Here is the input.
Amino acid sequence: MAFDPREALREAGILGGPVAEELQGAFATLSEEETNLLIALKNRIPAMLPEVLAHSAGVQWSRPEAAQHGFEPAMLCACGLWSGAGQN
Here is the structure.
């Protein structure tokens, strides 16, 4: 019997309900090792999350740091400035 990553992810509780066609295709290409890694992370991330949150107690997540310093939201992405794409 061939390994089916989608079925393994469903059994592990990672996939449930309908999944978009694009995701179905992406999950079908996972190797057994990649699938096992996702399953292991599913169990480890919630256990590590309290520690991560404890280290970020003073961080304000509601607004980007640049907005807190008075920059307009439209100016937060300066991709064109750095790449020169904004020059004609």
